[in-house]
Amino acid sequence: MHDYLNGAPCGYFSFNDESILLSVNDMLCRLTDYKRDELTGKNIEFILTLPSRIFYQTHLFPLLKMRGRAEEIFLTILGRDKTALAVLLNAVKNEEDGKPVYQCAFITVPNRKKFEDELVAARNKAERALKENSDLLRIRFELQEQAAQLDAQLALVKKHNQELIQLNRVVTHEMQEPLRKISMFSEMLTEEKFAAFDKDNARKRLANASIQMRTVVSGLQQFFWLEEAGDKKVNVDLNKLIRVVALDVEAGTSKDSISISADTLSGLYANPEQMKMLFYELLCNSVRFAKDGRRADVVVTTTEIQRNSFRQIPGHYNYESYIKIDVADNGNGFDPQYAPRVFDLFVRLQSNTGGRGIGLALCKKIVENHGGFISIDSALEKGTTVSILLPVHNDLLSPKSDHLL
């Protein structure tokens, strides 16, 4: 070995095909705390840590044999006190006396291991944070789902409570009154003291009370049938449905009693029978409350809007797409102060129109069965607009289902 290599400011050693160290310089001896004669003649693996021995056997030595050189190889050298020293090594294959000799020069890189450890630690931290974030997102999603289910249950409980209150009012008032009349006029018919005229009047009043009772019972049957009706939803062509319902309304009233104006309307994913009942009741109301018996002019429009699906739990938001259907007429309208009551069972704002007072209650029931909302806006002599919001389904008018009403 030349003297200038012995005093070089880098580590140097050489070895042969048998991996025996042939020479080492002062820098290598100083770094490992070995003397020169303690290293020469030893296997190179004597000064390598276990991971570096494996790397030497599987990569470095085969690379030098095939290519004759290697650059920027990271190894760890083992000192006398078993301290591992990180080095960056370049090696080249030469010949001396016709035999291959592998010459290696290296510099120490004490901070590289530290940097690599920091990088590994940062990567592990990032992976943990990502996993924790994924867990948080999953938990948040599950909580949102649970909140949505709770909100739906609370809405259902509220709806049932409101229906029970209405049912109690129907039983104590709407049914109690005709029952009282039936009892009273039945007694009149059995009493000898009443004249024939009084008995004829009693029979008429008894018949009217019976009709009133049947009307209430029939209305309740329809209302609670909607509660039990199955969820048989298909794609519904709203344009065709409106035309069919308008013909049914005219058949029950008079020809040209209603005029429908509508652009191309959005389709619905809904129960067709319930939708037919919904629009039949709405259009019948438009005819019933038309001005001075004139033709009812009705305009039907649809738009798509976003609305928070949470109804009962404050501070929770989940905006979903809804189809908004407006059914507007030019009829008599009514005082807006009565708007909150018109969807209750057997509420009649006008007693001379022939209605049963259950139509709008059925409409509300149908809309709620479809997860929607219904509202009404009216003013005296300025007509009425009923607004319906129904949730948009992804499979709305999908090719998979062509059941159009």
Describe the structure.
There is one protein chain. The protein has 405 residues and is α+β, with helices and mostly antiparallel strands. Among the domains are: 106 residues, 2-Layer Sandwich (Beta-Lactamase); 175 residues, Heat Shock Protein 90. Strand 3 and strand 4 form a beta hairpin. Helix 9 packs antiparallel against helix 10. It is rod-shaped and about 150 Å long. The C terminus is likely disordered.
Q: Strand fraction band?
A: 15-25%
- The overall pLDDT, averaged over residues, is 82
Specify the CATH class of the domain at 231-405: Alpha Beta
Strand order of the largest sheet: 2-1-5-4-3
**Rounded Rg:** 46 Å
**SSE-based structural type:** alpha+beta
Enumerate the spans where pLDDT stays under 50 for 5 or more consecutive residues. Answer: 394-405
Q: Compute the separation of the termini in Å.
A: 99 Å
Number of helices: 10
Please count the beta strands (DSSP E, at least 2 residues each).
12
Taken from the alpha-carbon principal axes, the silhouette is rod-shaped
Q: Can you say what the CATH homologous superfamily of the domain at 231-405 is?
A: Histidine kinase-like ATPase, C-terminal domain
Approximate helicity band? 40-55%
Oligomer: single chain
